[in-house]
Specification:
The protein is α/β, with parallel strands linked by helices. It contains 6 helices and 7 strands; from the N terminus they run αβββαββαβαβαα. The protein has a single domain, classed as Nitrogenase molybdenum iron protein domain (Rossmann fold, 3-Layer(aba) Sandwich), CATH 3.40.50. Helix 1 crosses helix 6 and helix 5 packs antiparallel against helix 6.
């Protein structure tokens, strides 16, 4: 429980810093390596993102990407805005059909439902797997989401501000 509060605190602090910094996002197309070691190519800044994991949804909103979130799992209920997003099924049984119907240009998952990754790859939909094992892994995942979505510059400035505080 303390770890969840700590993570929520970090994400909240990042969000506050983003509001102060006012940097414009810069996207660089390329190939990223997810937590399973898979190479995922992102050609353009994703505008329609689906997250099927509550923690990943929270990261997206904390990074100011809520407007790009097209769909979330049935269990994504924070922040409040996440409740208004299209639902794509449960954590253990996401609906590939519902995800595909949302026409995402990026899906973020934790990889525990392997058929989801396999089917999305077959359909040519980029899917990044986030499986942090510790706090450093969580921070690296936040950076990976920043790179994948074009808010990396904003994120780096925020990290610098946090380190100086």
């Amino acid at each position: 429980m303390k770890l969840t509060s700590f993570i929520t605190g970090i994400i909240s602090l990042i969000l506050v810093v983003f509001g102060v910094t006012g940097c414009q996002p810069v996207f660089q197309p390329g190939t990223l390596t997810d937590d399973l070691g898979r190479q995922v190519t992102i050609e353009a800044p994703p505008q329609r993102i689906v997250s099927h994991v509550p923690g990943i949804t929270e990261i997206l909103f904390a990074l100011g990407l809520g407007g790009r979130v097209a769909g979330v799992s049935d269990f994504c209920n924070y922040p409040e805005e996440a409740k208004l997003k299209e639902k794509v099924g449960g954590y253990f049984d996401p609906s590939v059909e519902k995800i595909v119907a949302l026409e995402p240009d990026l899906v973020l998952t934790d990889g525990y439902v392997d058929y989801l990754m396999i089917q999305l790859e077959q359909l040519g939909i980029p899917c990044i797997v986030l499986q942090p094992q510790d706090i450093d892994g969580i921070l690296k995942n936040i950076e990976l989401v920043g790179r994948a979505t074009g808010v990396e510059r904003k994120l780096r400035k925020s990290w610098q501000t946090l380190k100086c505080a």
